[in-house]
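Appendix C reproduces, verbatim, an entry submitted by the partner laboratory led by Prof. M.T., so that reviewers can inspect both the input and the predicted structure.
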Amino acid sequence: MRFKAEFDEAWMVYWKKLPENMRERIRKKIDQILDNPKRRHMKHGLDFFVAEVGQYRIVYRFFEKLRTVRFYFVGKHKEYERWYRE
């Protein structure tokens, strides 16, 4: 059964910074994540996961009982490093 997508309130800020051609690739990756959210952990011990699309990163968490995936960040690798340091 497919998971439902939820987006953090800051998601749209990051989304609007993406080039239009990259948005379509990110949408496809989100669809893949919703079908199977278990990927690689962002860092050992954190509940966040990260998916890669070229030089871009998508950060999310999934909630098995609620059948939802909450997306927090999307951006280039350097922006991703800044995001997780905060």
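The mean pLDDT is 90. Additional entries are available on request from the coordinating office.
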